[in-house]
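FW: tagging you since you asked about this chain on Friday. Here's the raw sequence from the shared folder, copied in full. Didn't touch anything.
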Amino acid sequence: MPVFSCESSVYLLPNAIRPGRNRHRFRACQTAGEGNDRVMAWPDRPSFGIPALFLALGIAGAGYMVGSGVKELALARQSVTVKGYAEEEIRADYGLWSATVTARASRLPDATRLAQNHAAAVTKFLEDSGLPASQIVLEQVVSYPLMRLTESGQSTSVVDSYVVTQRIQAGSADIALLETLTKKAPDLLLLGFEIALEPTQYFRRELGNLKIQLLGRAMADAQARAEEMASKTGRSVGRLRSTSQGVFQVTAASSREISSTGELDTTAVDKKIRSVVTAEFELK
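HL: got it, structure written out here
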């Protein structure tokens, strides 16, 4: 059995191990006392160091990625919800004046004739105040019977009299004229017939366009509020996550009334419109 040396150690080469007959990797060593002839000795022991290193690095990398993903997910879920407000003072550009006359008579034709006379008197009053006849509308005549009552107050089947009513309306974009007319309208009560004066209504036409503009301003206010809140904590505002529109308020300019269902004032010439939105922004 030949003797060989490898790294200052002397080993015996078993007969079972011969060069070229074993598929294992062998370390080449020089045989003792035989020149430079080299033979294959024992197989190297398998090394687990490098694979274990790669495995450890892989696990560490995966852990970092998972941890980073969880952190990003947690950040993505952080958000700020704010309300944005916008308001503007406006003036009515159209008004509607209304009144109802009433006439009573034992006969329906007489009651109808009286009601027509009363309506004509109101129409003349409006025209004398400066309203064109084309802007005055006489609505349909309404009539109903009043039944005779017994001494105990029970209704009978006998007609006692008839009641006829007619409503008169006048619309105009001349707000100053309508305001003057409203102040003079109580003079109609002195004409000697029954008349019910309704509050003059004032509107702003094309209110829908104003609503759209106000919503945009309310949204800008919401974003500004969110940015201010985020900056105080060293964060910044990301994309808009959700938004919803609140109620739209149209109130008298001097009113502070706010309703959860919205307000639509028609009594004041000078008004204030308010809009509110709720917005949720992501935080970065």
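FW: Residues 79-91+206-283 form a domain with the Translation Initiation Factor IF3 fold (CATH 3.30.110.170).
HL: agreed, and The first helix runs from residue 49 to 77.
FW: great, closing this out.
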